[in-house]
Amino acid sequence: MTWQAKLFEGEVGLRPIRQRDAKVWREVRLRNLAWLQQWEATVPEEGLLSGEVPASFGVMVRTLHRQARLRKVVPWVITYNGELVGQVTVGGITYGSMRSAYIGYWIDEKVAGRGIMPTAVAMALDYCFEELELHRVEIHIRPENTASRRVVEKLGIPEEGLRRSYLHIDGDWRDHICYAIVAGERPQGVLSSWRASQTR
């Protein structure tokens, strides 16, 4: 496994997040504050009382790189025509008898709806199965997040059910729908299936 892999499909790319992305990353996030805030992870009151604080960009990147070297995460930014437009993270990587992970993602509103995110997630899923040799990958989405749910629905990833109070999002514990895909369900690859669906 190399967490520094770079993947491309046409104008869409995945590459490792880096410290020098700070200025552009912050600009994109600030411009998309209203678009993203309602879906953002937050620290619950118990965490704030014990001293947990949201990480700065620099701390976030250092933490992601450290976890990546331990084979626990693969942290990518999404590029479109070479510009940073979002992020895809493969996290919670577990080997042994489980061999699983989850994927989280966000995208700049100005390029949403162009097929960029389904392409990026499809590339990430293929990497999970082909390179990381995982057995199962999950994606957890709030029921109200229709834009994010459309991504997994476009890719045909099955819905498995509701996880109650699963993550602390936008100031409270929120329910999430679990979508999951298992190795071997797309012998030709998730990206190939996504490509084929675009030509129908």
Explain what you see.
This protein is an alpha+beta fold and 200 residues long. It has a single domain (7-198), classed as Gcn5-related N-acetyltransferase (GNAT) (Aminopeptidase). The chain is built from 7 helices and 8 strands. The protein is globular. The model has no long low-confidence stretch (mean pLDDT 93). Belongs to the acetyltransferase family. RimJ subfamily. InterPro entries: Acyl_CoA_acyltransferase (IPR016181), GNAT_dom (IPR000182), N-acetyltransferase (IPR051531). Residues 12-184 form the N-acetyltransferase domain.
- State the assembly state of the protein chains: single chain
Low-confidence stretches: none
Sketch the topology as an H/E string, one letter per element.
Answer: EEHHHHEEEHEHEEH
Under CATH, the topology can be stated as: Aminopeptidase
So, CATH architecture? Answer: 3-Layer(aba) Sandwich
CATH class: Alpha Beta
Characteristics of this structure?
200 residues, alpha+beta, Aminopeptidase, eight-stranded mixed beta sheet, transferase, GNAT_dom
List the topology elements.
Elements lengths: L6 E3 L2 E5 L5 H10 L1 H4 L8 H5 L7 H13 L4 E7 L2 E12 L5 E8 L8 H15 L5 E6 L4 H9 L4 E11 L2 E11 L7 H9 L2
Parallel strand pairs: 5-6
Antiparallel strand pairs: 1-2, 2-3, 3-4, 4-5, 6-8, 7-8
